[in-house]
Amino acid sequence: MINKRRPIKVIMAFFAGILLTVPGYPGQETLRLYEIKEVVLTAANSYENPYLEVDCWVEVEGPGFSKKIHGFWNGDSEFVYRIAATSPGGWSWTSHSNVNDEGLNGKSGTFDAVEWDGDEIAKNPNRRGFIKSSSNGRALEYADDTPFFMLGDTWWAASTWRYPLKGVIPDENYIPAEGISFEEAVHFRKRQGYNTIAMIAAFPNWKVDNYPPRYIDDNRIGVRQAWKKNGTNTAKDMHDEEGNIPFHRWDKSDVIADFDRLNPEYFKSLDKKIKYLSDKGFVTFLETVRRDHGPSWKHYFDWPGSFSRYVQYIIARYGAYNIIFSGIHLDWILETFSLTSDEFNEALTYHYEIYGSLPYEQPYTILIEGSTYREFGHGEEAPWLNMHAVGNAPRHHGFYPMLEEIFSLDPPYPAANLEPYYPGWNNSTHNNIAGETPEPDSDRDHYFARAQMYGSVLSGGLAGHMYGTGAYGGNTTGEPKNEGDYPYIWEALVCASGSQFPNLARFILSEGKAYQGCVPRRDLLKPHKAEGSRDDGLDGWSFMLLSGNRELAFLYFENKAEVPVVTGLVPDATYKLEWFDPITGEWLEKPISLNSCHEGMISTGSFPSGRKVSGRDWCLKLKLED
Fold it and tell me: What is the pTM of this model?
Protein backbone atom coordinates (compact mmCIF):
# COMPACT_ATOMS: atom_id res chain seq x y z
CA MET A 1 0.00 0.00 0.00
CA ILE A 2 1.35 3.44 -1.05
CA ASN A 3 1.82 5.92 1.75
CA LYS A 4 0.14 9.11 0.47
CA ARG A 5 1.63 11.19 3.30
CA ARG A 6 5.27 11.79 2.37
CA PRO A 7 7.62 12.80 5.19
CA ILE A 8 7.73 16.56 5.65
CA LYS A 9 11.53 16.67 5.20
CA VAL A 10 11.29 15.03 1.77
CA ILE A 11 8.64 17.52 0.62
CA MET A 12 10.67 20.47 1.87
CA ALA A 13 13.79 19.23 0.10
CA PHE A 14 11.81 18.84 -3.12
CA PHE A 15 10.56 22.43 -3.07
CA ALA A 16 13.96 23.76 -2.03
CA GLY A 17 15.45 22.15 -5.12
CA ILE A 18 12.88 23.88 -7.29
CA LEU A 19 13.46 27.25 -5.67
CA LEU A 20 17.21 27.02 -6.29
CA THR A 21 16.52 27.03 -10.03
CA VAL A 22 14.20 30.04 -9.93
CA PRO A 23 15.92 33.42 -10.50
CA GLY A 24 15.64 35.73 -7.53
CA TYR A 25 15.41 32.99 -4.92
CA PRO A 26 16.37 34.55 -1.56
CA GLY A 27 20.01 33.85 -0.72
CA GLN A 28 20.84 32.71 -4.25
CA GLU A 29 23.87 34.43 -5.82
CA THR A 30 22.86 36.68 -8.70
CA LEU A 31 25.16 37.87 -11.49
CA ARG A 32 24.62 39.89 -14.63
CA LEU A 33 25.00 38.33 -18.06
CA TYR A 34 28.65 37.98 -19.13
CA GLU A 35 29.84 38.96 -15.64
CA ILE A 36 32.55 36.55 -14.54
CA LYS A 37 31.70 34.07 -11.80
CA GLU A 38 34.87 32.77 -10.13
CA VAL A 39 34.74 29.34 -8.56
CA VAL A 40 37.75 28.81 -6.28
CA LEU A 41 38.55 25.31 -5.05
CA THR A 42 41.37 24.07 -2.83
CA ALA A 43 43.04 20.78 -3.66
CA ALA A 44 43.10 18.26 -0.82
CA ASN A 45 46.21 16.53 -2.16
CA SER A 46 49.74 17.85 -2.51
CA TYR A 47 51.34 17.99 -5.96
CA GLU A 48 54.97 18.45 -6.88
CA ASN A 49 53.96 20.39 -10.00
CA PRO A 50 50.21 21.18 -10.08
CA TYR A 51 50.53 22.95 -13.45
CA LEU A 52 51.85 19.75 -14.99
CA GLU A 53 49.83 17.16 -13.08
CA VAL A 54 46.30 18.50 -12.68
CA ASP A 55 43.69 19.00 -15.37
CA CYS A 56 40.46 20.30 -13.86
CA TRP A 57 37.12 21.53 -15.14
CA VAL A 58 33.52 22.25 -14.25
CA GLU A 59 30.49 21.01 -16.12
CA VAL A 60 28.33 24.12 -16.55
CA GLU A 61 24.60 24.02 -17.26
CA GLY A 62 22.35 26.96 -18.04
CA PRO A 63 19.52 27.97 -20.37
CA GLY A 64 20.64 26.81 -23.82
CA PHE A 65 24.14 26.06 -22.52
CA SER A 66 25.90 22.83 -21.53
CA LYS A 67 29.68 22.84 -21.62
CA LYS A 68 32.92 21.84 -19.95
CA ILE A 69 34.83 24.92 -18.72
CA HIS A 70 38.44 24.27 -17.72
CA GLY A 71 40.04 25.73 -14.63
CA PHE A 72 43.63 26.74 -13.94
CA TRP A 73 46.16 26.42 -11.17
CA ASN A 74 46.53 29.73 -9.34
CA GLY A 75 49.38 28.94 -6.95
CA ASP A 76 49.71 26.80 -3.82
CA SER A 77 46.67 24.47 -3.68
CA GLU A 78 44.25 26.90 -5.32
CA PHE A 79 42.40 26.18 -8.57
CA VAL A 80 40.14 28.73 -10.23
CA TYR A 81 37.33 28.33 -12.78
CA ARG A 82 35.92 31.38 -14.57
CA ILE A 83 32.32 31.13 -15.80
CA ALA A 84 30.10 33.63 -17.60
CA ALA A 85 26.36 33.23 -18.10
CA THR A 86 25.18 33.86 -21.65
CA SER A 87 21.41 33.92 -21.02
CA PRO A 88 19.16 34.84 -18.08
CA GLY A 89 17.98 32.15 -15.69
CA GLY A 90 19.34 29.55 -13.33
CA TRP A 91 22.90 28.19 -13.80
CA SER A 92 24.76 25.34 -12.10
CA TRP A 93 28.26 23.88 -12.07
CA THR A 94 29.87 20.63 -10.92
CA SER A 95 33.61 20.10 -10.59
CA HIS A 96 35.79 17.31 -11.99
CA SER A 97 39.49 16.60 -12.54
CA ASN A 98 41.90 13.97 -13.82
CA VAL A 99 43.07 13.19 -10.26
CA ASN A 100 41.44 11.56 -7.27
CA ASP A 101 41.15 14.70 -5.17
CA GLU A 102 38.15 15.36 -2.93
CA GLY A 103 38.92 19.08 -2.98
CA LEU A 104 38.55 19.28 -6.76
CA ASN A 105 35.94 16.65 -7.55
CA GLY A 106 32.20 16.59 -6.89
CA LYS A 107 31.86 20.21 -5.74
CA SER A 108 28.84 22.04 -7.08
CA GLY A 109 26.98 25.30 -6.94
CA THR A 110 24.25 27.40 -8.51
CA PHE A 111 23.69 31.03 -9.36
CA ASP A 112 21.20 33.18 -11.23
CA ALA A 113 21.88 35.40 -14.23
CA VAL A 114 19.91 38.54 -15.03
CA GLU A 115 20.13 41.00 -17.90
CA TRP A 116 21.70 44.46 -17.92
CA ASP A 117 19.42 47.40 -18.65
CA GLY A 118 19.96 49.68 -21.64
CA ASP A 119 21.83 52.41 -19.76
CA GLU A 120 24.21 49.87 -18.23
CA ILE A 121 24.94 48.36 -21.65
CA ALA A 122 25.63 51.80 -23.07
CA LYS A 123 28.35 52.31 -20.45
CA ASN A 124 30.19 49.13 -21.42
CA PRO A 125 29.64 47.42 -24.80
CA ASN A 126 31.11 44.16 -23.42
CA ARG A 127 27.75 43.74 -21.74
CA ARG A 128 26.35 43.06 -25.21
CA GLY A 129 27.97 39.64 -25.09
CA PHE A 130 30.84 37.71 -26.57
CA ILE A 131 32.30 38.65 -29.95
CA LYS A 132 31.21 36.31 -32.75
CA SER A 133 31.09 36.15 -36.52
CA SER A 134 28.29 38.04 -38.24
CA SER A 135 25.48 36.00 -39.76
CA ASN A 136 27.15 36.03 -43.19
CA GLY A 137 30.56 35.14 -41.72
CA ARG A 138 32.28 38.26 -43.07
CA ALA A 139 32.49 40.54 -40.04
CA LEU A 140 32.33 40.56 -36.24
CA GLU A 141 29.53 41.48 -33.86
CA TYR A 142 28.49 41.15 -30.24
CA ALA A 143 26.15 38.39 -29.07
CA ASP A 144 23.18 40.79 -29.37
CA ASP A 145 24.04 41.28 -33.10
CA THR A 146 25.37 44.81 -32.65
CA PRO A 147 28.33 45.32 -35.02
CA PHE A 148 31.79 45.05 -33.50
CA PHE A 149 34.23 46.78 -35.83
CA MET A 150 37.67 46.22 -34.34
CA LEU A 151 39.71 49.39 -33.77
CA GLY A 152 42.84 47.94 -32.20
CA ASP A 153 46.21 49.19 -31.05
CA THR A 154 49.46 47.20 -30.91
CA TRP A 155 50.68 47.24 -27.33
CA TRP A 156 52.55 43.93 -27.61
CA ALA A 157 54.49 44.57 -24.38
CA ALA A 158 51.43 45.67 -22.38
CA SER A 159 51.45 42.49 -20.29
CA THR A 160 54.71 43.65 -18.67
CA TRP A 161 55.96 46.41 -16.39
CA ARG A 162 56.50 48.59 -19.45
CA TYR A 163 52.81 49.54 -19.40
CA PRO A 164 52.53 49.81 -15.60
CA LEU A 165 49.20 49.44 -13.84
CA LYS A 166 49.48 52.10 -11.12
CA GLY A 167 45.99 52.24 -9.62
CA VAL A 168 45.48 55.83 -10.79
CA ILE A 169 42.27 57.46 -11.98
CA PRO A 170 43.18 59.27 -15.22
CA ASP A 171 42.40 62.93 -15.65
CA GLU A 172 39.53 63.29 -18.12
CA ASN A 173 41.67 65.37 -20.51
CA TYR A 174 44.90 63.44 -19.99
CA ILE A 175 47.54 63.82 -22.71
CA PRO A 176 50.26 61.12 -22.83
CA ALA A 177 53.51 62.11 -21.17
CA GLU A 178 56.56 60.54 -19.56
CA GLY A 179 55.59 58.34 -16.62
CA ILE A 180 52.37 57.21 -18.32
CA SER A 181 50.39 54.44 -16.63
CA PHE A 182 48.43 51.60 -18.20
CA GLU A 183 45.23 53.25 -16.99
CA GLU A 184 46.12 56.59 -18.59
CA ALA A 185 47.08 55.01 -21.90
CA VAL A 186 43.78 53.07 -21.98
CA HIS A 187 41.82 56.20 -21.09
CA PHE A 188 43.47 58.17 -23.89
CA ARG A 189 42.71 55.53 -26.53
CA LYS A 190 39.14 55.10 -25.29
CA ARG A 191 38.53 58.81 -25.59
CA GLN A 192 39.72 58.63 -29.19
CA GLY A 193 37.36 55.75 -30.00
CA TYR A 194 39.48 52.58 -29.88
CA ASN A 195 37.85 49.36 -28.67
CA THR A 196 40.67 46.77 -28.74
CA ILE A 197 44.15 46.46 -27.22
CA ALA A 198 46.55 43.82 -28.55
CA MET A 199 49.19 42.22 -26.33
CA ILE A 200 51.40 39.15 -26.04
CA ALA A 201 50.70 37.35 -22.77
CA ALA A 202 54.32 36.45 -21.96
CA PHE A 203 57.95 36.62 -23.14
CA PRO A 204 59.50 33.72 -21.19
CA ASN A 205 63.05 33.78 -22.64
CA TRP A 206 63.48 37.56 -22.57
CA LYS A 207 65.39 39.25 -19.77
CA VAL A 208 68.40 41.44 -19.15
CA ASP A 209 71.39 39.12 -18.93
CA ASN A 210 74.82 38.48 -20.44
CA TYR A 211 73.41 37.14 -23.71
CA PRO A 212 72.55 39.12 -26.86
CA PRO A 213 68.95 39.80 -27.87
CA ARG A 214 69.30 37.35 -30.77
CA TYR A 215 70.69 34.24 -29.18
CA ILE A 216 71.42 30.75 -30.55
CA ASP A 217 72.70 28.23 -28.01
CA ASP A 218 75.56 25.72 -28.32
CA ASN A 219 73.20 23.16 -29.86
CA ARG A 220 72.39 25.65 -32.66
CA ILE A 221 68.85 26.08 -31.31
CA GLY A 222 67.33 29.54 -31.57
CA VAL A 223 66.47 30.71 -28.06
CA ARG A 224 65.23 34.24 -28.67
CA GLN A 225 65.08 37.00 -31.24
CA ALA A 226 64.19 39.70 -28.75
CA TRP A 227 63.77 43.43 -29.06
CA LYS A 228 66.95 45.06 -27.80
CA LYS A 229 66.84 46.89 -24.49
CA ASN A 230 67.95 50.42 -25.23
CA GLY A 231 71.43 51.28 -24.07
CA THR A 232 72.49 47.61 -23.77
CA ASN A 233 73.32 44.60 -25.90
CA THR A 234 70.74 42.27 -24.38
CA ALA A 235 67.01 41.60 -24.53
CA LYS A 236 64.28 43.80 -23.16
CA ASP A 237 63.27 42.74 -19.65
CA MET A 238 59.70 41.50 -19.71
CA HIS A 239 58.72 40.83 -16.09
CA ASP A 240 55.61 42.25 -14.44
CA GLU A 241 55.48 45.29 -12.14
CA GLU A 242 56.57 43.15 -9.18
CA GLY A 243 59.48 41.48 -10.98
CA ASN A 244 57.61 38.20 -11.60
CA ILE A 245 58.40 36.19 -14.72
CA PRO A 246 55.90 33.87 -16.48
CA PHE A 247 57.91 30.64 -16.05
CA HIS A 248 60.61 29.67 -13.60
CA ARG A 249 64.13 29.46 -14.97
CA TRP A 250 65.25 26.10 -16.26
CA ASP A 251 68.08 24.54 -14.25
CA LYS A 252 69.80 23.49 -17.48
CA SER A 253 70.06 26.97 -19.02
CA ASP A 254 70.69 30.56 -17.96
CA VAL A 255 68.33 31.84 -20.66
CA ILE A 256 65.67 29.27 -21.48
CA ALA A 257 62.54 29.20 -19.33
CA ASP A 258 61.31 25.97 -17.78
CA PHE A 259 58.18 25.64 -19.88
CA ASP A 260 56.87 22.96 -17.54
CA ARG A 261 57.02 25.15 -14.41
CA LEU A 262 54.66 28.09 -14.73
CA ASN A 263 54.62 31.01 -12.27
CA PRO A 264 51.01 32.03 -11.46
CA GLU A 265 52.15 35.25 -9.75
CA TYR A 266 53.03 36.77 -13.13
CA PHE A 267 49.59 35.98 -14.50
CA LYS A 268 47.88 37.49 -11.47
CA SER A 269 49.33 40.80 -12.64
CA LEU A 270 48.02 40.20 -16.15
CA ASP A 271 44.59 39.41 -14.65
CA LYS A 272 44.33 42.97 -13.38
CA LYS A 273 45.07 44.49 -16.79
CA ILE A 274 42.66 42.33 -18.74
CA LYS A 275 39.92 42.94 -16.17
CA TYR A 276 40.62 46.67 -16.34
CA LEU A 277 40.30 46.61 -20.12
CA SER A 278 37.06 44.64 -19.89
CA ASP A 279 35.61 47.03 -17.33
CA LYS A 280 36.42 49.95 -19.65
CA GLY A 281 34.63 48.32 -22.58
CA PHE A 282 37.71 47.06 -24.44
CA VAL A 283 38.21 43.71 -26.12
CA THR A 284 41.68 42.22 -25.58
CA PHE A 285 43.44 40.77 -28.60
CA LEU A 286 45.43 38.21 -26.65
CA GLU A 287 48.37 36.19 -27.95
CA THR A 288 50.05 33.31 -26.17
CA VAL A 289 53.74 33.91 -26.85
CA ARG A 290 56.06 35.26 -29.53
CA ARG A 291 57.25 32.79 -32.19
CA ASP A 292 60.97 32.99 -31.28
CA HIS A 293 60.26 30.80 -28.22
CA GLY A 294 59.15 27.94 -30.45
CA PRO A 295 62.51 26.31 -31.35
CA SER A 296 63.77 25.92 -27.76
CA TRP A 297 60.31 24.86 -26.56
CA LYS A 298 60.10 22.10 -29.15
CA HIS A 299 63.73 20.92 -28.84
CA TYR A 300 64.01 20.72 -25.05
CA PHE A 301 60.45 20.00 -23.88
CA ASP A 302 57.54 17.71 -24.72
CA TRP A 303 56.10 19.05 -27.97
CA PRO A 304 53.29 19.61 -28.69
CA GLY A 305 52.05 18.58 -25.24
CA SER A 306 53.89 21.24 -23.24
CA PHE A 307 52.94 24.03 -25.61
CA SER A 308 49.33 22.84 -25.71
CA ARG A 309 49.20 22.94 -21.92
CA TYR A 310 50.29 26.58 -21.93
CA VAL A 311 47.79 27.52 -24.65
CA GLN A 312 45.06 25.94 -22.56
CA TYR A 313 46.24 27.76 -19.44
CA ILE A 314 45.83 31.11 -21.20
CA ILE A 315 42.41 30.12 -22.54
CA ALA A 316 41.25 28.82 -19.15
CA ARG A 317 42.45 31.96 -17.39
CA TYR A 318 41.09 34.54 -19.85
CA GLY A 319 38.49 32.70 -21.94
CA ALA A 320 35.55 34.10 -19.97
CA TYR A 321 36.51 37.63 -21.05
CA ASN A 322 35.61 39.21 -24.36
CA ILE A 323 38.81 38.38 -26.21
CA ILE A 324 40.06 37.76 -29.71
CA PHE A 325 42.59 34.97 -29.34
CA SER A 326 45.82 34.39 -31.24
CA GLY A 327 47.55 31.05 -30.68
CA ILE A 328 51.01 32.38 -31.59
CA HIS A 329 52.56 35.72 -32.57
CA LEU A 330 53.93 34.52 -35.91
CA ASP A 331 55.11 37.81 -37.33
CA TRP A 332 58.21 36.43 -39.02
CA ILE A 333 58.72 32.82 -40.06
CA LEU A 334 62.48 32.22 -39.80
CA GLU A 335 64.27 28.90 -39.82
CA THR A 336 66.37 29.75 -36.75
CA PHE A 337 64.03 31.87 -34.65
CA SER A 338 60.66 30.34 -35.43
CA LEU A 339 59.04 27.02 -36.11
CA THR A 340 57.23 26.70 -39.42
CA SER A 341 53.55 27.38 -39.81
CA ASP A 342 53.07 23.63 -40.27
CA GLU A 343 54.71 22.94 -36.91
CA PHE A 344 52.55 25.50 -35.14
CA ASN A 345 49.46 24.22 -36.95
CA GLU A 346 50.26 20.72 -35.72
CA ALA A 347 50.54 21.97 -32.13
CA LEU A 348 47.38 24.09 -32.24
CA THR A 349 45.42 21.28 -33.88
CA TYR A 350 46.70 18.92 -31.16
CA HIS A 351 45.35 21.35 -28.56
CA TYR A 352 42.04 21.69 -30.40
CA GLU A 353 41.54 17.93 -30.56
CA ILE A 354 41.94 17.71 -26.78
CA TYR A 355 40.16 20.85 -25.60
CA GLY A 356 38.05 22.07 -28.51
CA SER A 357 37.39 25.72 -29.33
CA LEU A 358 37.38 28.64 -26.91
CA PRO A 359 34.78 28.23 -24.16
CA TYR A 360 32.52 30.95 -25.51
CA GLU A 361 33.39 30.51 -29.21
CA GLN A 362 35.27 33.81 -29.49
CA PRO A 363 37.30 34.59 -32.63
CA TYR A 364 40.52 32.57 -32.95
CA THR A 365 43.17 33.76 -35.36
CA ILE A 366 46.93 34.22 -35.74
CA LEU A 367 48.99 37.35 -36.14
CA ILE A 368 50.86 36.34 -39.25
CA GLU A 369 53.55 37.22 -41.74
CA GLY A 370 51.62 37.22 -44.99
CA SER A 371 48.25 35.43 -44.93
CA THR A 372 46.82 32.89 -42.48
CA TYR A 373 45.07 31.21 -45.39
CA ARG A 374 48.34 30.77 -47.26
CA GLU A 375 50.18 29.55 -44.14
CA PHE A 376 47.51 27.39 -42.46
CA GLY A 377 44.75 26.76 -44.96
CA HIS A 378 41.03 26.85 -44.31
CA GLY A 379 38.38 24.75 -42.61
CA GLU A 380 39.60 21.30 -41.63
CA GLU A 381 43.18 22.17 -42.60
CA ALA A 382 43.27 24.33 -39.44
CA PRO A 383 40.17 23.37 -37.40
CA TRP A 384 41.01 25.74 -34.54
CA LEU A 385 41.00 28.81 -36.83
CA ASN A 386 37.75 30.77 -37.31
CA MET A 387 39.09 34.22 -38.28
CA HIS A 388 41.67 34.96 -40.97
CA ALA A 389 44.32 37.67 -41.03
CA VAL A 390 47.11 39.25 -43.00
CA GLY A 391 50.02 41.13 -41.51
CA ASN A 392 53.63 42.22 -41.15
CA ALA A 393 54.76 41.65 -44.73
CA PRO A 394 54.39 43.03 -47.28
CA ARG A 395 53.43 46.45 -45.89
CA HIS A 396 52.22 47.75 -49.26
CA HIS A 397 49.67 46.96 -51.98
CA GLY A 398 50.60 43.29 -51.71
CA PHE A 399 48.26 42.94 -48.70
CA TYR A 400 45.13 43.56 -50.73
CA PRO A 401 45.07 40.56 -53.10
CA MET A 402 45.61 38.39 -49.99
CA LEU A 403 42.52 39.87 -48.33
CA GLU A 404 40.47 39.53 -51.51
CA GLU A 405 41.49 35.89 -51.73
CA ILE A 406 40.43 35.29 -48.12
CA PHE A 407 37.12 37.05 -48.80
CA SER A 408 36.37 34.57 -51.60
CA LEU A 409 36.72 31.48 -49.37
CA ASP A 410 33.83 29.16 -48.57
CA PRO A 411 32.74 29.09 -45.81
CA PRO A 412 33.50 32.76 -45.19
CA TYR A 413 35.55 33.88 -42.18
CA PRO A 414 36.00 37.41 -40.81
CA ALA A 415 39.40 38.88 -41.67
CA ALA A 416 41.58 41.84 -40.72
CA ASN A 417 45.05 43.27 -41.21
CA LEU A 418 46.63 42.73 -37.79
CA GLU A 419 50.09 44.21 -38.34
CA PRO A 420 50.26 46.90 -41.00
CA TYR A 421 52.45 50.00 -41.22
CA TYR A 422 53.93 51.42 -37.98
CA PRO A 423 53.85 55.26 -37.97
CA GLY A 424 56.35 57.03 -35.77
CA TRP A 425 59.01 54.36 -36.21
CA ASN A 426 62.03 55.28 -38.33
CA ASN A 427 62.91 51.75 -39.46
CA SER A 428 64.04 51.37 -43.07
CA THR A 429 63.63 47.57 -43.01
CA HIS A 430 60.05 47.25 -41.76
CA ASN A 431 58.66 50.67 -42.75
CA ASN A 432 59.99 50.68 -46.30
CA ILE A 433 57.35 51.44 -48.94
CA ALA A 434 58.71 51.28 -52.51
CA GLY A 435 62.13 52.26 -51.17
CA GLU A 436 60.76 55.13 -49.07
CA THR A 437 60.95 55.45 -45.28
CA PRO A 438 59.17 58.66 -44.26
CA GLU A 439 60.31 60.94 -41.49
CA PRO A 440 58.57 59.74 -38.30
CA ASP A 441 55.41 61.66 -37.43
CA SER A 442 55.38 63.43 -40.81
CA ASP A 443 52.33 63.84 -43.06
CA ARG A 444 53.69 61.13 -45.34
CA ASP A 445 54.21 58.81 -42.37
CA HIS A 446 50.61 59.22 -41.29
CA TYR A 447 49.33 58.89 -44.84
CA PHE A 448 50.94 55.44 -45.14
CA ALA A 449 49.09 54.41 -41.96
CA ARG A 450 45.75 55.69 -43.34
CA ALA A 451 46.28 54.00 -46.69
CA GLN A 452 46.74 50.65 -44.93
CA MET A 453 43.62 51.21 -42.82
CA TYR A 454 41.21 51.94 -45.65
CA GLY A 455 42.86 49.75 -48.28
CA SER A 456 42.72 46.73 -45.97
CA VAL A 457 39.08 47.13 -44.95
CA LEU A 458 37.87 47.92 -48.47
CA SER A 459 39.71 44.84 -49.73
CA GLY A 460 37.53 42.65 -47.53
CA GLY A 461 39.00 43.00 -44.02
CA LEU A 462 35.55 43.66 -42.58
CA ALA A 463 36.47 42.52 -39.06
CA GLY A 464 38.22 45.86 -38.59
CA HIS A 465 41.84 46.90 -38.39
CA MET A 466 44.84 47.02 -36.07
CA TYR A 467 46.71 50.32 -35.84
CA GLY A 468 50.49 49.95 -35.64
CA THR A 469 51.71 51.94 -32.65
CA GLY A 470 55.45 52.44 -33.12
CA ALA A 471 56.08 51.93 -29.39
CA TYR A 472 54.72 48.38 -29.40
CA GLY A 473 57.90 47.16 -27.67
CA GLY A 474 57.29 49.42 -24.68
CA ASN A 475 60.17 51.91 -24.75
CA THR A 476 59.72 53.74 -21.52
CA THR A 477 61.14 55.96 -18.77
CA GLY A 478 64.80 55.36 -17.95
CA GLU A 479 65.71 53.79 -21.29
CA PRO A 480 67.83 55.90 -23.66
CA LYS A 481 66.67 56.27 -27.23
CA ASN A 482 69.00 56.32 -30.22
CA GLU A 483 68.36 57.31 -33.81
CA GLY A 484 66.11 54.73 -35.44
CA ASP A 485 64.88 53.27 -32.16
CA TYR A 486 61.24 52.75 -31.32
CA PRO A 487 59.55 55.91 -30.01
CA TYR A 488 58.61 56.15 -26.35
CA ILE A 489 55.08 55.04 -25.47
CA TRP A 490 53.83 58.57 -24.83
CA GLU A 491 55.35 59.82 -28.11
CA ALA A 492 53.74 57.08 -30.20
CA LEU A 493 50.29 57.54 -28.67
CA VAL A 494 50.05 61.16 -29.82
CA CYS A 495 50.99 60.47 -33.45
CA ALA A 496 48.39 62.17 -35.67
CA SER A 497 47.44 58.98 -37.51
CA GLY A 498 46.50 57.43 -34.16
CA SER A 499 43.78 60.04 -33.69
CA GLN A 500 42.75 59.70 -37.36
CA PHE A 501 42.29 55.93 -37.12
CA PRO A 502 38.79 55.97 -35.52
CA ASN A 503 37.59 58.00 -38.52
CA LEU A 504 37.67 54.67 -40.36
CA ALA A 505 34.78 53.41 -38.21
CA ARG A 506 32.83 56.64 -38.68
CA PHE A 507 33.00 56.05 -42.41
CA ILE A 508 32.34 52.30 -42.51
CA LEU A 509 29.61 52.30 -39.83
CA SER A 510 27.81 55.33 -41.28
CA GLU A 511 25.16 52.97 -42.69
CA GLY A 512 24.98 50.70 -39.66
CA LYS A 513 25.51 47.02 -40.45
CA ALA A 514 25.25 47.50 -44.20
CA TYR A 515 29.03 47.21 -44.68
CA GLN A 516 28.79 43.55 -43.61
CA GLY A 517 26.96 42.71 -46.84
CA CYS A 518 29.41 44.51 -49.12
CA VAL A 519 31.94 42.89 -51.44
CA PRO A 520 35.40 44.25 -52.44
CA ARG A 521 35.13 45.27 -56.11
CA ARG A 522 38.00 47.58 -57.00
CA ASP A 523 37.88 45.89 -60.41
CA LEU A 524 34.69 47.87 -61.13
CA LEU A 525 36.59 51.17 -60.89
CA LYS A 526 38.00 52.32 -64.25
CA PRO A 527 40.87 52.74 -63.59
CA HIS A 528 41.53 51.27 -60.16
CA LYS A 529 45.29 51.70 -60.60
CA ALA A 530 46.74 54.99 -61.73
CA GLU A 531 49.23 54.84 -64.56
CA GLY A 532 52.70 54.22 -63.17
CA SER A 533 51.51 53.23 -59.67
CA ARG A 534 53.66 50.54 -58.09
CA ASP A 535 52.49 47.23 -56.66
CA ASP A 536 55.04 47.62 -53.84
CA GLY A 537 53.88 51.15 -53.05
CA LEU A 538 50.90 52.84 -51.41
CA ASP A 539 50.07 55.48 -54.02
CA GLY A 540 47.69 55.56 -56.95
CA TRP A 541 45.17 52.80 -56.15
CA SER A 542 41.40 53.07 -55.68
CA PHE A 543 39.16 50.68 -53.71
CA MET A 544 35.45 49.96 -53.47
CA LEU A 545 33.10 47.92 -51.31
CA LEU A 546 29.80 47.36 -53.12
CA SER A 547 26.60 45.95 -51.63
CA GLY A 548 25.03 42.91 -53.23
CA ASN A 549 22.00 44.91 -54.42
CA ARG A 550 24.35 47.60 -55.84
CA GLU A 551 22.60 50.30 -53.83
CA LEU A 552 25.53 51.23 -51.57
CA ALA A 553 29.25 51.65 -52.15
CA PHE A 554 32.20 52.75 -50.00
CA LEU A 555 35.25 54.02 -51.91
CA TYR A 556 38.77 55.03 -50.93
CA PHE A 557 41.28 56.83 -53.14
CA GLU A 558 44.97 56.84 -52.33
CA ASN A 559 47.24 59.78 -52.95
CA LYS A 560 47.88 60.13 -56.73
CA ALA A 561 44.78 58.09 -57.60
CA GLU A 562 43.07 58.95 -60.90
CA VAL A 563 39.40 59.82 -60.70
CA PRO A 564 37.61 56.68 -61.93
CA VAL A 565 34.36 55.78 -63.60
CA VAL A 566 32.33 53.66 -61.16
CA THR A 567 30.72 50.72 -62.94
CA GLY A 568 28.45 47.90 -61.77
CA LEU A 569 25.77 50.19 -60.32
CA VAL A 570 22.00 50.06 -60.79
CA PRO A 571 21.25 51.33 -64.32
CA ASP A 572 19.35 54.60 -64.83
CA ALA A 573 19.23 55.36 -61.11
CA THR A 574 20.01 58.37 -58.94
CA TYR A 575 22.80 58.08 -56.38
CA LYS A 576 23.73 60.47 -53.60
CA LEU A 577 27.48 61.03 -53.41
CA GLU A 578 29.07 62.12 -50.13
CA TRP A 579 32.76 62.83 -49.76
CA PHE A 580 34.45 61.98 -46.45
CA ASP A 581 37.76 63.34 -45.21
CA PRO A 582 39.80 60.50 -43.58
CA ILE A 583 42.07 63.07 -41.92
CA THR A 584 39.42 65.15 -40.13
CA GLY A 585 36.68 62.50 -39.97
CA GLU A 586 34.16 64.94 -41.41
CA TRP A 587 31.69 64.66 -44.28
CA LEU A 588 31.82 67.45 -46.83
CA GLU A 589 28.86 69.77 -46.39
CA LYS A 590 27.15 69.38 -49.75
CA PRO A 591 26.23 65.87 -50.95
CA ILE A 592 25.53 65.75 -54.66
CA SER A 593 23.18 63.61 -56.74
CA LEU A 594 24.25 61.95 -59.97
CA ASN A 595 22.43 59.63 -62.35
CA SER A 596 23.90 56.36 -63.55
CA CYS A 597 23.70 55.65 -67.24
CA HIS A 598 21.80 52.72 -68.73
CA GLU A 599 24.97 50.64 -68.30
CA GLY A 600 25.14 51.39 -64.54
CA MET A 601 28.12 53.78 -64.64
CA ILE A 602 28.80 57.06 -62.86
CA SER A 603 31.74 59.43 -63.16
CA THR A 604 32.47 61.64 -60.18
CA GLY A 605 34.21 64.13 -62.47
CA SER A 606 36.91 65.15 -60.02
CA PHE A 607 38.08 64.95 -56.43
CA PRO A 608 36.92 67.57 -53.88
CA SER A 609 40.03 69.57 -54.73
CA GLY A 610 38.76 69.85 -58.32
CA ARG A 611 41.65 67.76 -59.62
CA LYS A 612 41.52 64.65 -61.81
CA VAL A 613 44.50 63.16 -59.99
CA SER A 614 44.28 63.23 -56.21
CA GLY A 615 46.95 65.14 -54.31
CA ARG A 616 45.92 63.37 -51.08
CA ASP A 617 43.62 60.53 -49.98
CA TRP A 618 39.82 60.77 -49.95
CA CYS A 619 36.77 58.62 -49.15
CA LEU A 620 33.45 58.58 -50.99
CA LYS A 621 30.08 56.98 -50.28
CA LEU A 622 27.48 56.28 -52.98
CA LYS A 623 23.92 55.51 -51.92
CA LEU A 624 20.89 54.89 -54.10
CA GLU A 625 18.27 57.56 -53.49
CA ASP A 626 14.67 56.56 -52.77
Answer: 0.95
